[in-house]
From TrEMBL:
Native organism: Microbacterium protaetiae
Record's catalysed reaction(s): Hydrolysis of DNA containing ring-opened 7-methylguanine residues, releasing 2,6-diamino-4-hydroxy-5-(N-methyl)formamidopyrimidine
One GO molecular-function entry: damaged DNA binding
Protein name per the record: Fpg/Nei family DNA glycosylase
Domain Formamidopyrimidine-DNA glycosylase catalytic intervals: 2-95
Top-level taxon in the UniProt lineage: Bacteria
Residue stretches making up the FPG-type domain: 237-271
KW Lyase (keyword) present: yes
GO biological process, one term: base-excision repair
Lineage: Bacteria, Bacillati, Actinomycetota, Actinomycetes, Micrococcales
Amino acid sequence: MPEMPEVQGLVEFLDGRITGLEITRVSVAAIAALKTYDPPVDALRGASISGVSRHGKFVDVATGTAHLVFHLAKAGWLRWYDALPSTIIKPGRTPIALRIALSDGSGFDLTEAGTKKSLAVYVVRDPADVPGIARLGPDPLEPGFTRATFGTLLTGKRTQIKGLLRDQAVIAGIGNAYSDEILHAAKMSPYTLAANLTDDDVNRLYAAMIETLRDAVAQASGKPPADLKDAKRRGMRVHGRRGEACPVCGDTVRSVFFADNSLEYCPTCQTGGKLLADRRLSRLLK
């Protein structure tokens, strides 16, 4: 799933290439991906793009008439073309959900792999009209997101810290992958309750979060969409590296599996050597 760093890289790429261009055609190939009807998607045709920005994991393409907002979900991505293909996209026979043609002949497709379709596209007058944006918590890389701000968000929360970091209503932009990376950098178990953290724990977690995200954003900056996913994988220390050696201590990276995802952690660095129970096996033993 694209998270804040990759989405920020995508926003920077698009902003530098499409701002000032006119949208000449919008083709919807997966009607289920379009979540709004007023204004209609045709309102984008002929509109000049004034800029591209990010809200959490949402991309916001602003025009003088409406905003094209999209969330790439778990398996969505953006495919960029310097010269947009002239082929006609056929609904139901392609991973393409939406195609945008631009006035200089370039354009992009929003695509989604797999059978579970979650990619979401909105055409709105104001980004705040998108429910997911309206309920976003603060962005951790905004200047006002201080250690004190972070501490306030954690106070009294009887929630495991892994889940809290991923909660978009608490903190915007962090998902499964970077929460693993942040907790590894902070040397903290994903099951630690937020309410049980000491001041030193919060200091360490805040520093790990800011450093991890800033480094990842810097790595994503300047890369075209086709390279962003591989750059993300190369930068991971524990996420997606089950069975490999932890780059800090050399212990084996372990996984805990859930219904539709997993978390990765280093026992030596994060749990005092304790192995966390595999939730799939736990269910079988009940």
